[in-house]
Amino acid sequence: MSKVNIVKFAPKNGEGFYDTLKKNIDTFFKENNMSPSGNASLRWKTVAMVSLFFVPYAFIVSGLGASSPFLYFGLWAMMGFGMIGVGCGVHHDSNHGSYSDNKKVNKIVGDIVNVVGGYDVTWRIQHNILHHTYTNIEGLDEDIDAGGLLRFSPHSKKLGVHKYQHIYGWFLYCLLTVQWVTYKDYRLLFIYNAKGLLKKEKITLRKALLELTIYKVIYFTYILVLPIIFSGMPWYYVVGGFFLLHFIAGLGLSCIFQLAHVLESSEFPLPSDDRKMGNSWAIHQMLNTANFSPRSHWVFWFVGGLNYQVEHHLFPHISHVHYPQIAKIVKSTAEQYGVPYKVMPTFVNALREHWRMLKKMGQ
């Protein structure tokens, strides 16, 4: 496996837009005497989302959820929504370093991804380094590499089965977190080590494998073994609940993240032969990222502000609690410089456009 074949973004395309925008954003925080990190509302959300995952679990493992199958599987379903909330609204900010001004707090809160079946090291490499830097660039952004069964980019190899991906793709989305908690993190560790990316996290492959294995043992012990022993329900009910949890979490997380980038309006540019891009990094983000449902306070709260993906990609170091306010600045500055600012009015609109993109990529 070769090292990462990075690209260089143009330094002058759209000159002035990002510098002006950063100044405007800095001025906003200074004038309002605010920190770009999270605030009390984010801490309360942390309590709510963590509770949404672990309170139903407590009912399951204590046997209190065994009074009826409907209640029992309802508790697992709640955990699925809790996992979405933890992923989007808690550890996401933390692993971007925007949850708190304190690095130790970011590390502690960010480690919750390890508790719910993921691994913070591979997550930061795939998401922070590859996806945020090389958004929608074939061969670099792993978020558009779905392993062959799904075709997100017009530059990916097209197979006959892709003709039906707008139908079966939603079922594959349900398996997203099942992959995470089983084999994907192991596969990524070997890939990232070969590409020299583990060094960026200051960890060796041996240490990472040991850490990951310990986390997986802890996870499967509490998520499967303890409920089988103590829940008072048959083992196949426990396994069924486990998959229900992950089907909900996988579908929800896939939709939230894909709706911002895999759209008909996305550009999916390729670098030139000398690995140079035609646009600057900021302009590239504006052309390949879209917001959705900006007027829904409930969507904003539940998905951790990730319906404001434009703001998140331009300023990942700013906590999502500030996105609705800085979105006005981003939009006005984009209009000033003639830069596209893509917004879909509702979540349903975004789903519909993503469905059309899946169908288009299969034609």
Give an overview of the whole structure:
The protein is mainly α. The protein has one domain (17-362). The chain has helices spanning 17-31, 40-62, 69-95, 103-110, 112-115, 120-133, 165-173, 176-194, 205-230, 235-258, 281-287, 297-302, 309-314, 323-336, 347-362; strands spanning 291-292, 343-344. A two-stranded parallel ribbon has the order 1-2. Helix 7 (165-173) crosses helix 15 (347-362) and helix 9 (205-230) crosses helix 10 (235-258). The relative contact order is 0.17.
Q: What does the largest sheet look like? A: 2 strands, parallel
User: What value does the Rg take, in angstroms?
Assistant: 21 Å
Shape: globular
Mean of residue pLDDT?
Answer: 94
Enumerate the spans where pLDDT stays under 50 for 5 or more consecutive residues: none
The run of helices and strands is HHHHHHHHHHHEHHHEH
Gap from first CA to last CA = 32 Å
User: What amount of the residues lies in strands?
Assistant: under 5%
Number of strands: 2
Determine the fraction of residues in helical runs and give it as a percent range: 55-70%
Number of helical elements = 15
SS-derived structural category: mainly alpha
Number of domains as seen in the coordinates: 1
Order the strands across the largest sheet as they lie in space.
1-2
